[in-house]
Write a structure and sequence with these properties.
The chain has 179 residues and is mostly helical. Helix content is 77%, strand content 7%. The strands form two sheets. It has a two-stranded antiparallel ribbon. The chain has a two-stranded antiparallel sheet with strand order 3-4. β3 and β4 form a beta hairpin. The longest helix is centred in the N-terminal third of the chain and has 57 residues. The termini are far apart.
Length: 179
């Protein structure tokens, strides 16, 4: 087969034949990567949202527990607080379906509870001090009343308990109940 001045031969270039397939494969890889990036971002967003929701729920429960602690006996606050907050964290964590979010929530819950615990225990201690001070004040009032209105023996006993000294006939005996 001769045409004109030279011979023509037909040869297939393998690179040219596969160029279309290579382009399609590159396109598919790009689409796949974009899909993975989208999924990764979506998963991060969902996890962040679930964690924020769980933290908000815990904060609400901690505020409620703090108010409840105000009505409790100061001696019982610590034990009740620990039981209630542990139960709250467990209940909230059990409602989280993603184990990564549940693990992150438990770690952050420790900090939240620790910070709130300081306030709750401080308040309980202050109330306990007030309670004890009130008991001492009542006891002092009763002793003063006995000194003022009681018989000689009651007055001497009240003086000894209140002041730590007993006065009899111009002699001061320290810590001695002997008359």
């Amino acid at each position: 087969n001769k045409t004109g001045g030279g011979t023509l031969s037909v040869q297939a270039n393998p690179g040219a034949l596969s160029a279309g397939l290579d382009a399609f494969a590159g396109f598919a890889r790009n689409v796949q990567q974009q899909g993975l990036n989208f999924y990764e971002q979506e998963l991060k967003t969902q996890r962040a949202s679930a964690l924020a929701s769980a933290e908000t729920e815990l904060d609400t429960k901690l505020d409620q527990r703090q108010l409840e602690a105000l009505d409790q006996d100061p001696d019982a606050v610590k034990g009740n607080w620990e039981r209630a907050t542990k139960s709250d964290v467990t209940q909230i964590a059990n409602n989280i379906s993603d184990p990564v979010v549940a693990r992150r929530f438990k770690a952050k819950a420790i900090d939240s509870i620790g910070n709130k615990t300081l306030n709750v225990l401080k308040d309980a201690r202050n109330r306990l001090i007030d309670k004890v001070s009130g008991q001492y004040a009542l006891r002092e009032d009763r002793l003063i009343q006995k000194i003022a209105t009681g018989n000689k023996a009651e007055a001497n006993q009240a003086e000894l308990e209140l002041f730590g000294i007993l006065k009899t006939k111009h002699i001061v005996k320290l810590g001695c109940a002997k008359v």
